[in-house]
Amino acid sequence: MTRRTATVQPGDGRTLTPYRPWQLLTRSLFHLQLTDPAGAPRTWSVDVRHGGDDADGEARADLYVDSLHHATAKLPAAFPVPDGTIEVAASGYGLRRIHHVGADGSARQLVPDPASGEGRRARLDRTHPALSRSLALASAAVLLVALLLGVPQVVEQLTQIPPVAQTVGAWVSPVRLPDEVNIALVVATIAASTERALRLRYSRILDGGFFSGDE
Questions:
Q1: 30 and 60 share a domain?
Q2: Which segments cross the bilayer (predicted)?
Q3: Pair 133, 94 in one domain
Q4: Which of the ends of the chain has fewer CB neighbours closer than 10 A, N or C?
Q5: Element (H, E) at 96
Q6: In a shared domain, residues 16 and 105
Q7: Residue 73 lies in a domain
Q8: Exposed/middle/buried for 22, CB within 10 Å: 0-12, 13-18, 19+?
């Protein structure tokens, strides 16, 4: 992972709560079947509430083993598990990575819970691949257009700042969009980035651009 991971804290043994329909855009839940050192099969689950913890507002990943809380860590997180680690990282719109990285360096993505937003998006990809591809292409196109139209306007605003203007000079953008169009562009960008996050697709240029809340 590119960023330093947080310290893993032990879990409290609580039971994993079922996924609710109203949590489609606020919660990610993924599972992985692994065999423990004793040879017993276990289900490892990672639960992420994107709105953050009720106590401090910090987004965390919670690791469960057979539905019992095993560990927790702030994002990005790396949990030691049998034969490797589970790495979890978030973007401004969901998860960008949730993989089991083996001791040999191999990586495989965890399986989304069928009831989750990621699970429903994966099911759409399996049952309607043509529609799924169209949505994916549309999302990428929206983000590209937003980037091309948004960057000149942002650069113009930056060069209006007096210290910047004195150093590099003021620059006038060739792109000038009405406020209503810019608002619609932001809404479309959020929708497109959310769709990509449901597929765990992330590009620092497209998804971490000027209209994104991501770093």
A1: yes
A2: 130-151
A3: no
A4: C
A5: strand 95-102
A6: yes
A7: yes
A8: exposed
